[in-house]
Amino acid sequence: MRNKDPHTKIYCVHLRTTYTASVPQKPLRKYSNEQFTASSVTVPHSAKESYPQIFYTHQYYISHNAKVTHRAVGCFISIFIGTAVVSITVKLTFRYPSKMAKRKVDTENRGFQTRWESEYMFTKVAGKPVCLLCGESVAVLKEYNLRRHYETKHALFKKAKSQVCDEVCPEKRQLFLNVSLSRNTIAERVDQLSINLKEQLVKKGKDFIAYSLAVDESTDISDIAQLSIFIRGVDSNLSVTEEFLALRPMHGTTTGHDLYEEVSRCVNEMELPWEKLVGLTTDGAPAMCGHRSGLVAKIREKMQEENATGELTAYHCIIHQEALCGKALKMEHVMSIITRTVNFIRAKGLNHRQFKAFLTELETEHGDLPYHTEVRWLSQGKVLQRCFELREEICLFLDSKGKDTTQLRDEMFLCEMAFLCDITSHLNAINLQLQGRDRVISDMYSTVKAFKTKLTLWETQMRKENLSHFPSCQTMKEKLSTSAFPSTQLADKIGMLAADFRRRFADFEAQKSRLELLGNPFAVDVESSPPNLQMELIDLQCNDALRAKYAAVGAAEFARFLPGTMPQLRIQLFTQVSLMNLNKTSHRSRLTAEHLHSILRISSAQSLTPNIDELVEKMGHHQVSPSTSNK
């Protein structure tokens, strides 16, 4: 029976979503092998007037045949009018595929493109694109969806720009609106700023009397070796320029020859003469320091080919050396237990939450444990200090989890842990002192020399059980119940550390006289100095005005104030000043992508500033993008 009333509708409930189908029209959704129960039937007004006492219920079923793509299904509606039953049969045609359809995107295997990270600020996390700005994920991995999200939810720059213009200079509003802030335009401007800085550095490099390089190679999260190069140069006025030179991704091998090829290409691009290279700082890898095929050896060969008369002074990264000295303690058995304990607590979210709640309940001073990361040299001291202070609470928590805490309760283990905690804090302190810019190598050498003297004092005091500089050890000594504090064994550890410091910094001892001349030329023994410097040193040390100037400006700037009557001393000092000391700055992090080169050059610029006026003049006029100006 065909229902001619267009107002009669069937309301179907499917997966908590209500769909409406007009009888006998086609339903709005394609159905498959499922059963549905309608929730109600809207009866025409005329029927209500004729049958005021009406009750209704109905069901319909959809059967499925895999070989049939169209199937007519009967819908039976039973209307109860008193005791009589009137059945109305309506034929509905359902169109559905032979089997449950899959979304097209499920079979396309779309891949995440790396350019989307810079263009739309998206990255891939657990197979889904996630916005780096707001943290939201997009369901379908399509460029259109990413672009739409970026343009609709993060189009703030242009709005903020116009608002500032309205307040500051409303008459220039249209000029501001005409400035393109599209992704491509911004990327192009960043590249132009980087090129401008590079041109300035090339120009400055032509005035260098001497320069040194610092080279570091590390592997990023994509397993690409990144070679970062820094330069420090001085001109005839002894003005120091210290800048980021280049970032070179190395997709193949990283042998000494490969490193040399990249450094050589960079030096030639910057038009730097090899004969003016006086210093080279590297890490201790064989590819860097190998006697025959390392980077240092290759550069020395190149300088000989160029008939360079100067001497190349090669240094191992001071902070890298200091970090490696900590390995001489040979206390990996202590650190491995601490790391395993921390990982058990921090690796699983449930354990971590329960541990923090446990500390809160006990009202401890600290509310959590930090992670230990091997590449972050300062993290070990923080982890050890926190674990030592929470040692009792950690044992109680592990007991509640059924873990063995025998080693963590052993008194000798706790003594070693306390010692490692204290000595690591001392190593972290010198590590921080060695970091930073605008420091000459003589200052860093003085810091290392002072630490070696401290080690000698600590070894002597430890043998006498004087724990004045080891507070954690002092705490453990007071709590020992049965065993004696192992002062002799720990003093031997300090002696091993001191010996390793002397071995690793032997190259600085070989340059001791030159470093002392730069550090304090007024305290240098004239008689033991080179003959060509003796007369000038006497004149310098007897000049009260220069002595006062040295006290006012420091060693790094003092060389600029030496008079022309002291040429040999000036040459000696500017050579030392040019030695690269940029051994660890924020730029020594794990660099990840080649496109960071321009951003890194701009962000690390110190003595150089992009010439905006020159760039604008080259462009001639403000560039207006039609696609952006109409937005």
UniProtKB/TrEMBL annotation:
Keywords: Membrane, Transmembrane, Transmembrane helix. InterPro entries: RNaseH-like_sf, SPIN-DOC_Znf-C2H2. Pfam families: zf-C2H2_12. Residues 113-155 form the SPIN-DOC-like zinc-finger domain. It comes from the Eukaryota. The chain crosses the membrane at residues 71-94. This is SPIN-DOC-like zinc-finger domain-containing protein.
